[in-house]
Specification:
26% strand; Chalcone isomerase; alpha+beta; 195 residues; seven-stranded antiparallel beta sheet; 6 helices
Length: 195
């Protein structure tokens, strides 16, 4: 008994393209399903406020799923930026090299937090703390009452007690000129990824 192919009206190149797109989306959807609704930070339970997808280049390549956790949900960027306790977690859906991730952070500070000047040394220390990430890795930004702590794959890589640095970091994601508007809307709970 042989195989019989049914003509669907699709060319082989179209079918190959659809299979390739589906293959590229598998890690993203698998990771998106793993976003927890609550987490523990500094002995407190934080709840998921919202999620968004960071896309890069004109091809809109998915880079990470961002999840924002707060003690009390909020849709207000100003209220969230004043929150004494929050976590922003970035779950990567692709590998990113060290140089590329460091350049991305430098550009983010240069383009999206200009009003906070005089922090060149601190931004440089922050940028140089990052190393390559693999698909499935995560970076966590813990906004604690008196400091920010950054963890890459569970390891603390940066700390700052500077309130202006805290504001600058928030401005990259939820400021008036964020790195990506629909990412901001997602983590504010106004859209984004439905998980």
């Amino acid at each position: 008994m042989g195989f019989r192919f049914i003509h669907t009206g699709m060319s082989n190149s179209t079918l190959k393209l659809l299979v390739m797109i589906a293959f590229l989306l598998i890690p993203f959807f698998a990771l998106a399903k793993e976003v927890p609704q609550t987490i523990h930070v500094a002995d407190k339970i934080l709840q998921l406020n919202g999620t968004g997808i960071r896309k890069a280049t004109f091809l809109k390549v998915k880079v990470y799923v961002a999840s924002l956790y707060l003690e009390k949900r909020s849709h207000s960027a100003e209220e969230i930026a004043q929150s004494p306790l929050a976590r922003l977690e970035l779950n990567f859906v692709r590998d990113i090299g060290k140089e590329r991730i460091q350049n991305a952070w430098k550009e983010a500070f240069d383009e999206h937090s200009r009003k906070y000047s005089g922090m060149d040394a601190e931004v440089s220390r922050f940028v140089s703390a990052f190393y390559a990430v693999k698909e499935g890795d995560h970076i966590s930004f813990d906004f604690l009452p008196k400091q920010i702590q950054v963890l890459e794959v569970g390891k603390a890589i940066f700390k700052s007690e500077n309130p202006d640095f805290r504001k600058a970091l928030w401005s990259i994601f939820i400021g008036t000129n964020p790195i990506q508007e629909d990412l901001k809307e997602g983590i504010l709970g106004l859209g984004g990824v439905n998980i």
